[in-house]
Amino acid sequence: MKQLTLEQKLFLNGFRPDKDSHLVIKNPEKCKSCKLKQCTYVCPVNTYRWENDQVTVFFEGCLECGACRVACKSCGNLEWRYPRGGFGVNYRTG
Amino acid sequence: MSQTQSSEKFDVIVVGAGPAGLSAAYLLGKAGLNVAVVERGDFPGSKNVMGGVLYRQPTAEVFPEFWKQAPLERVLVEQRAWVLTEKAVFKVGHRHQAFTEEPYNAFTVLRARFDKWVAQQVRNVGVLIIPETVVEEPIMEGEKVVGVRTGRPDGDLYANVVIAADGVNSLLAQKVGLRAEIDPDQVAIAVKEVIALPREVIQDRFNVSGDEGVAIEMYADASWGMVGTGFIYTNKESLSVGCGALLSQLIARGKTPNDLLEHMKAHPAVAQLLEGGETREYLAHLIPEGGLTGMPKLFTHGMLVVGDAAMLVNSMHREGSNLAITSGRFAAQAVLRAKEWGDYSADSLAYYGQLIRDSWIYRDLYKYRNMSRYFEHHPEFFGLYPDLLNEAAREMLTVDGVPKRNKQRAIFWGALRKRSLLRMARDMYGAWRSIA
User: Global pTM?
Assistant: First the structure.
């Protein structure tokens, strides 16, 4: 079957993104000394990207799984919560 | 919404409309209690993810004969296990005529559709389901949980008991202090695609007729050699195709979940089954893998923890929803007894912990308590041994003028060059011990 890019896959999902991110890096400076920067690859939808020496959070495609929250446990530099009621991903199949 | 105003007090507030929460709510509503379910999605099911296998017996304990009405995909009649290496696959399987007959053993489902139906049954017994509402934190009176604060204005809700059914990330159980932060070796990150294929194609390709279905569990190269598994489940007109690995292993190996899934989908044996399919949705879920060691405290004054929130997953047998449903049923039993006694203290609700402890849930989790840790420290079960197995099979099946006895010897000595007999014996014994 035809291989889709991650961006193409996310177009298939239903989302209602909020204005503000529900995922917040507590102290962006701290990420500079993070060796693995595991949030930039363990996320199923590539929410966290290392750009211009800092982490940018593309929260709109978040699937609310919590992998980043657990992966960042050692640093504890992520304020993780669910999107507000009615916002975020809306699965049709599940 | 007047129902969410702070003035109203419920007997029970259930946080989260998944299999555990809805099961508890249904039984409590049926018994005449005043129950509210708070769900953050647009509708129950819209945020819920699992692989896709639902077992009949534990579900029917709560919803008798549900299969006659519920939106199910296929009846599971055959289970296959595949051990993948880069270019090969070793297959075993089991099909039994009994699985094709009522009352059936298991079904494939799509959660968004199935949970929506379950929620309707829950409403029918008088339970109030409050969607699009996030629970922010517990409301405490001393050590006692007396309600929840929601994200709505004036959104405080009070109850005698709060049931935390808010999933693997259970912020609620954590804020009450029943659960510590999860470690990366206690969860697997799994991703799944629902891939559309015509009904006839699925029937031909998977060798089933009508609404019969197949589950394929895949190992080794399915999770790129990491501790994990992959799966293909047949739905009516789609396949649920997914895989996952321990988060700690993904972190160490620097892989992304999406690459992991694409790697599995590209395997020749898998690609063949997916040919011509069209992806309809892409989903992700964190799966509790800590087993017994990851289980939090299950109750406190005015609160119970059920399902994924209580980390109740049997990863060996990829069972989760059945543990969730059963824990929801036990929670309902404990709450009914607490109401009868007029006592919602931890001592009274300890009955829930006792029910779990005396059940197959605890027995099964106890049986596999060391499994996840064992395999995390023995990567050869996801690389070397699958390789040896497939190469041995290939050698014995290749006809090339070499006598079979010579082939056997070559396989044996070839294996010994890679790992000593003693190490292999110890590996096998250790693996057996961890699952026996």
Answer: 0.96
